[in-house]
Structures are given as C-alpha cells and as structure tokens.
C-alpha cells in the first residue's frame, strides 16, 4: 500500500547523521593502497622501496606537486591513513544491545575508566606506604617536562572531554607525585608527560673571523620584504655605522629607522663597542632598516653567550618577518579592497 | 649644587676672553644684547629654545674660537679676508657665525648680518622691475625687513657715517650729500618701493668708507651659496631668473669681493634651504659651483664638525639642567648612550630628539 509521503520526508537529513563513519574494512583497504603507493613512489624517485621513510615521501610529494600556497596544511600531502582519518571508536555494544564496558552509561566511558584506574593505583601506593613507612623518591627529569594538554588526552581516549575533566585528571596525577613511593607507578605516569623541545638549538652560529689587523669581525645576512642586507660587525669599535658607504645619519634621516638599527646593540648593552659596515639593496626605507636589523642580530650571534642568544630569540630579533605584499585578486581593486558598489 | 653647573657653563660672557679651556662650555648672552645684536640673526629653532629656556646659551666650540682668533690677529690695513664655514647639515655653522658676530659687536665693529641669503632667492611674493636698472628685479618686502633690523643693530653708526653723494629717489625726494646714513635707511623703510635701492646705497657707502682709520666692518652671510646658485623665481614669461638679475644679490656680490680693507667677511655654505642641490653635498666647492668658487677665491675654509664626546656630554648636561629631558630613562647612563647613537653626535639631530623627550 502506498503511504502518503512527500519528497521532503524522503530526503536524507545530513546534519543529523553526525560525522562520517569509516568502517574497519575501508580503513584496511586505505592502508593497503597507501603501502602500494609508497612502493610506486619509491620506484619513481629511484630509491629503495624497503627503506623508504615518511620524510622521503614528503620530499617526493613536494618535488612532484610543487605548491605556492602559504598555508602549509593546504598543500598536497601523503600520509599513513591512521594519521589522516580521525580515530573512531568501534561499536560499543554487542548484538543483544548490551554495552561491553561497565561505565558505558556515564557518557564518557574512557575518561572515567582512566580516572578509576589512576585512583586505584593511588590507593595501592598509599597501602604500600602504610606498610613500609620509609622514604623513596621520584626520578627527577633533567629536561623540561610538561603535562599533556586536553587535545592530546582526547587523542588517546578517542573521546571528547572538557577542560574541567582534564584539570581533574592532572590534579590526581600530581597528588600521586606528591606521595613518596610514587616510583612504583613511574612508567604509568611517564605516559602522560611530554618533554619541551628547546628552540634555540636550531640556530646556527657563524664562527668569528679575524681581519688583517687582528680585529675580530663577523658577518650576517637578513631579508625583509624584498630588501636584502649583509652586515659586517667589527669588534673594538666606537659605534660608527656605514650603510652603502654613507653615514647612517644621512642614509636614514627618519628616527624610526635609526631606532631599528639600534635595537640589537641596545638589547645586548653593546652600544658603543662595535663598528658596522653594511650593504643593502631593494625594498623601501622601513624594509631596508628591518633587513639590516636582522643581519646585525645574526652577525652579533658569534660574540655572545647561549643565554643571551636565547633571550634574543625570545625578543624576536632573530625571527625573519614573513609578511610580504599580498597579491591583488581579479575582480577586486587591491588585495582586500573591492570595487565601489553601485546599486545600478 | 655648584660643581655640576661649573662643568658645562662658564660665566665668561665676552667672547673675546674665550679660550681653549672654555671649549664645550655654554656661555650666556645677556638679554639686552640679544635684542640689539641679533634681531633677526639667530636660527629659528634657536630662537624657540631661547623663549623656552628664558636665556640665550651658546656653546663655545673650536671653529668659532678659531674664527675669533683670526679676527683678532687680522690687520685692518690689509684687504679684508674671507672666511667660509662649511660642514654637514646641522653641525652648528650658523651658531658659530653668530658667536663670531657677537664678539665683533662687543669689539665695536659695524655688523652687516644677512641671516639667510636663501630667503632672498626663493618664495618672493612681490617682484618689481627695478627703477634704477631696467633689467633687474627688486624685492621690496625683504629689503625693508632687512633695513629695519639693520637699523636696530647699528643705531650708533648710522648717525656717524655720512653719505658721500646725492641720491635722487623720485621727482620730489632726494638725499643730500653729507646727510647721516640713518636717513637713507629711514627712506628705504618708509618708501618700500625704493627699499632695494636703499640697501644697495647703504652697502656701497659702507664699503667705500671702511678705511683703517674709521670703523671696522664685518659682513656675515649665512648661506652664501645662494648668491651664485639658482633661484626659484620666475619672470612674467615663465623663464627662470638668474641671481645676478636681482638687485639685492647683485649688490651683495659686490660686497663679497676683497677690494676693500678694514674688515672681514664671514660666510657659511649650507645645504639646508638651498634649492636644486643634493642633500649629501656639504663641501664649499660643490655648493658654490664654479662661478661662486672663483668669486670667493681665495678664502679661508673653516670646517665645523659634529659634537665631540666632551661637547656631547656638556650639551646633555645642559638639557638635564634645564629640565628639558623629562623621560626617566633619559637620566640614566643607557639613555645617554642611546641618545648618542640615535643622534650620531649631530647637534641638530640631538636637539630634535630631545624636543619630545
């Protein structure tokens, strides 16, 4: 019998279905395709398919599909399907509709089971402590460590949690750390800690060079918005600066540009101690000043200690400014400005 | 506190007694003399500084001392020597000139001070064809203004000097022979149409009568390179005027020749205010051009450099003493180093930076 329906009722409600669900077979098929594709790529690049790593894949893709997009995440990428497809939970209940996990009806089963396990360990340690009543220490980490953040916890549990939950969990872990004898569950706790990488190790230092007359000098290069500058900083100076053969007072009549030149020296408290000669081409007045500032900071790296280099990096003296002129789009007057809107 | 004050100030207000030990120190010009000697002579920014600080303090520097030394030793019987002050922009040439002129006024010389010759070759609102010479042009406003200031400076002399011939201004006005020069100046001020010619007459008379027996004449011109450069003024048919076609310039050029004795000519060549010259030029040869250089040759060049360390220190202390540097960092050692770097020991740059501190 035909039941009266209209086309609106038969249309699928896309928003109610939730995020797209990938089945296990689908993911397995993707993994196989990825491995085969990896071997093909290795053959194409002339490398050994057995020892082809993810770095090799990245390099190959960047070579074969060059992209000028500024956003790195928009560029073409080839990665293992586990990294691309978001992790999804397998079906939580059996054929009879009964859930597997005993905490299913709390709503956040993985989070509460994690809290349950951790608190169980906490009680174990307390019982052990009551028995022994002696001292024991946690192994101190020499490097900087930090607790996991909410995003990383979500990734492990494959379940969305709130900030409050994450905070409660970290407070519980810190309570465990406060007890003596926490070294019993050390490896369990280390799973939730991450090390901070030290950024400044990536900066390379130019070695000091020596001139004919025994004066130490060092060179640096800098770029800012189509202006390139090379600077030569000499030791034992009086604070004289020459730009393209002209005194800096005449080359930069504006105070703001001279302040930019002064910034690296002033930051390191070396105002009257160095002489400098620089050459700069391209760009405008401000761009040239910025380029010379970066070149000076890089040249001064060879004269200073590591702590000073770290503080310079944090002050932003060593970061090249990535801002360039945005391109003009067709149909608009400039990069952002539209044509004047006429009603007729 | 006496001791910090003594470092950068000196109580010696007579430039004749300034010596090497006063280099880097500030001396005050008494206010009465400021009005008479420099009614129009000081640079504009310095006049603002005088108004702010309520005193006219000039720093004693080597170039000015050199000039004063030469002036003291110069023999009145010889033809007048020409001195040219040159230096980069903002190093203090105009103020050194004023320092030397102050000395001359205290020594009772007759001062002929043209504060900025560039003002005569550009931005002239009224340009009239000269009544005396058909091809030349007059500038009535500038001439009358200059005559007024000249009268303020040299009141005493205007009564003493007498004209040597009769001058006819128009059908009914004339000045007899033997009348005091003050009358010619008054005539120029009253009848603006004849002001430029009055200036010419004054210059001619002074030059003719500057003999070793009578007064000594010093001609101070700021921006002498304007006399031989180009003008921005145009005739009615839109063609550029040559400087020699202006009455004032023509008469002044005659003064710059060294065919008279009993005085001196001090000039500065500056790029600020000059037209059609690149800003990097500061040597006399570049700024004067071939014609000017030949006209002024031979001359004694005096270079005016930027502040030395001692002079910078003393200027900084002066500003602090006058409470001009308000920022709390300006009072520290690092602040001083920053000021030194940013101004690169240039006096004008330092003054501009401290202006908003």
From TrEMBL, chain A:
Residues 322-336 have a biased composition (Basic and acidic residues). It holds the Pfam family Ribosomal_S9. The keyword tRNA-binding does not apply. It comes from the Eukaryota. Residues 313-344 are annotated as: Disordered. Keywords: Ribonucleoprotein, Ribosomal protein. Coiled coil: none annotated. Belongs to the universal ribosomal protein uS9 family. PANTHER family: RIBOSOMAL PROTEIN S9, SMALL RIBOSOMAL SUBUNIT PROTEIN US9M. This is RT09 protein.
TrEMBL record, chain B:
Keywords: Mitochondrion, Ribonucleoprotein, Ribosomal protein, Transit peptide. The keyword Iron does not apply. InterPro entries: P-loop_NTPase, Ribosomal_mS29, Ribosomal_mS29_met. The keyword Ribosomal protein applies. It holds the Pfam family DAP3. It is found in: Mitochondrion. It comes from the Eukaryota. Transmembrane segments: none annotated. Belongs to the mitochondrion-specific ribosomal protein mS29 family. This is Small ribosomal subunit protein mS29. The gene is Dap3.
